[in-house]
Design a protein that fits this description.
- With 281 residues, the protein is of the alpha/beta class.
- The chain has seven helices and eleven strands.
- It folds into two domains: 142 residues, Ctag/Cox11 (Pfam 04442) (Sandwich); 94 residues, Cytochrome Bc1 Complex, Chain D, domain 2 (Orthogonal Bundle).
- The strands form two sheets. It has a six-stranded mixed beta sheet with strand order 4-2-10-6-8-11, with no helix packed on it. The protein has a five-stranded mixed beta sheet with strand order 1-7-9-5-3, with no helix packed on it.
Length: 281
């Protein structure tokens, strides 16, 4: 193994991601776990490497979550200098053996990130701890997981994303929304045909539960409103809270991702805002 790692850093990273070796967390596109009654506390550690003139800290020092529960937390980053800088965050969890159970859905650590001079942003992280954590003998007695980040000056700034996308007044990014749709939605939805879920092309401005040939749940059959950008935002944030009895299990907790997804869906609806639609027969 040592020889293989020495000659293949990429293979080593793949090994760490697959096994959780060294506290490497897992990257997933959705939370498919069943929420457990057992809880674990997750605390956050934030660091900046020498040479990067940023301040970086968690908004909350720790949260207690149920195993399988999707949780949204925020980290604040501020560029203390005049010039924009590009950085990349490394991360791990301790105990290191918990890494295979720690799943991140949304994280600034997935990209090279640019922060303009004196700019400050709050960056979302969405994660959950797999309920299988409770069944692992090595995790017996572990009640605290520490998620650590360190931001380093980037060695590859060319393809950086702007952290300004997390500002409240940032415009939506339909191209990023299309990527999120492919990652998080395409297993069940398409824009041009019904799949496990109804087709979503033209959804903005369409009355709920009105796609021909799709067998909606009773909750959606009985709902009576037109999909707007506002109602789509509430739906994506928590479908079952918005429409009790709805079956869709996937939630998009971070507002910037919802905004980008909706911008993409609106583009598939000819960019129009909701307009009058036929009532149910």
């Amino acid at each position: 193994m040592s020889g293989m790692v020495a000659y293949s850093p990429t293979l080593y990273r793949m090994f760490c991601a697959a096994t959780g070796y060294g506290g490497t967390t897992q990257r997933v596109v959705a939370d498919s776990a069943v929420v457990s009654s057992q809880t674990v506390t997750v605390e956050f550690d934030a660091n900046v490497a020498p040479g990067l003139n940023w301040r970086f800290a968690p908004v909350d020092r720790a949260v207690t979550v149920h195993l399988g529960e999707q949780r949204l937390v925020y980290f604040n980053a501020k560029n203390l200098g005049e010039a924009s800088e590009v950085a990349h965050a490394t991360f791990n969890v301790t105990p290191q053996t918990s890494g295979i159970y720690f799943n991140k859905i949304q994280c600034f650590c997935f990209n090279e990130e640019r922060l303009d001079g004196h700019q400050s942003v709050e960056m979302p992280v969405v994660f959950y701890v797999d309920p299988a954590f409770a069944k692992d003998p090595e995790m017996r007695g572990v009640s605290l997981i520490t998620l650590s980040y360190t931001f380093f000056r980037s060695a590859n700034p060319k393809d950086a994303r702007d952290l300004s996308r997390f500002l409240a007044d940032a415009p939506p990014d339909a191209a990023h929304g299309q990527m999120l749709f492919a990652e998080r939605c395409s297993a069940c939805h398409a824009v041009d045909r019904n799949m496990l879920g109804p087709k979503l092309g033209g959804v903005v401005g369409r009355r709920v539960g009105m796609i021909a040939g799709y067998n909606y749940s009773a909750a959606l059959k009985n709902a009576d409103f037109i999909w707007s950008t506002a109602s789509l935002d509430r739906w994506l944030a928590d479908p079952r809270a918005f429409i009790p009895g709805a079956k869709m299990p996937v939630r998009v907790l971070d507002a910037p991702s919802r905004k980008d997804l909706i911008a993409y869906l609106q583009k598939q609806s000819d960019g129009s805002e909701p307009k009058a639609a036929a009532s149910r027969p």
